[in-house]
Design brief:
Length: 321
């Protein structure tokens, strides 16, 4: 008996030429306009995700076809999805947390750096076994395209980058187990979760704690994409390489193996409190190598180039307000 052929690898995105943005299916350097190929309204990637289980066979059929393709070159690439909800994970890369803890240990500490690293590493291992991820809410209005300029607001002096793997939900998830959580993930994309470091902690009343609204949700502070790659074409979300370059110099270079809580545990954790909906984003945290680590924050004219294995590349330029 012949072995069934594997489906042609494809991705989803949102594009425009001269008119309104349209959802597109990407194979190589070609794009099929899904607003024409699928009789669904409204014509958005969110509409596709709302019908994800039924849409997949249709998408595979279109990917194998030879008609109705346009060249990717010349199209504007928008954020692949405009989600209903955005969930963001903090302190989720082991080496990043260790670096931060060691860098901020008291100046009069009697620990050597090696001892401090060993101590914090033990704490992270215990956290992975016994604790829950740290997750907070972001705003969809912060999302921008993978090639759009990022405006640095005048009210922050420490804008920073944070390259992250983003899981995109394809099926409602409420109180799912880690073992079942990945069945609710449609695919993955790239996010750069910018942060105004000087505004993370409230200076007027430290007891309040963090201010994620102002620190992370300025317009354009979440470049997303270029594409949504279906989960079937991502061999292992727990073994992807993340690389962010600033003006050509590598600043972040890490594997998702370094996550404290993997994608399944993050999705499961969020679903214990709320219902994840199709198109929702679960950002999975950023590895070591942020601007605060290098003592170099974002400035007017900086160019960030971010890649994750198999998910493409986003390239954004910073512009002072």
């Amino acid at each position: 008996m012949a072995t069934p052929a594997s489906p042609a690898p494809f991705a989803l995105g949102t594009f425009s030429a001269a008119g309104e943005p349209f959802p597109g299916l990407v194979v190589g350097d070609r794009v099929a306009d899904l607003s024409q190929a699928l009789d669904w309204r409204p014509a958005t990637t969110l509409a596709v995700l709302d019908r994800w289980a039924g849409a997949l066979p249709e998408l595979r059929r279109i990917a194998e076809g030879t008609q109705g393709w346009a060249e990717l070159e010349g199209l504007r690439v928008h954020a692949p999805i405009m989600p209903r909800q955005v969930f963001q994970s903090g302190a989720n890369y082991r080496q990043h947390v260790i670096d931060l803890a060691v860098a901020h240990r008291p100046s009069d500490s009697e620990e050597t750096e090696e001892q401090a690293r060993a101590r914090v590493a033990g704490m992270m291992d215990q956290r992975a076994r016994e604790d829950q991820p740290y997750v907070f809410i972001g705003l969809p209005s912060a999302i921008t395209g993978p090639q759009d300029d990022v405006v640095l607001p005048s009210w922050t002096t420490q804008p920073d980058w944070e390259l992250e793997l983003a899981a995109v939900i394809g099926r409602p998830a409420h109180r799912v187990s880690p073992e079942d959580a990945l069945e609710h993930v449609a695919g993955y994309t790239i996010a750069n979760d910018l942060t105004a470091r000087d505004l993370v902690f409230r200076k007027d009343m430290r007891e309040i704690g963090t201010d994620w609204l102002r620190a992370k949700n300025a317009p354009g502070f979440t470049p997303l994409g270029p594409y949504l790659v279906p989960a079937e074409f991502v061999a292992d979300p727990g073994d992807l390489r993340l690389v962010l370059k600033l003006n050509g110099e590598t600043m972040q270079d890490e594997s998702t193996k370094d996550m404290i809580f993997d994608v399944a545990r993050l999705v499961s954790c969020v679903s214990q409190t709320t219902t994840l909906l199709p198109g929702d984003l679960v950002l999975t945290g950023s590895p070591a190598g942020n601007g605060m680590h290098w003592g170099r924050l974002l400035r007017d004219g900086d160019v960030m180039e971010s890649t994750i294995t198999g998910l493409g590349t986003q390239r954004t330029r910073c512009v002072a307000e």
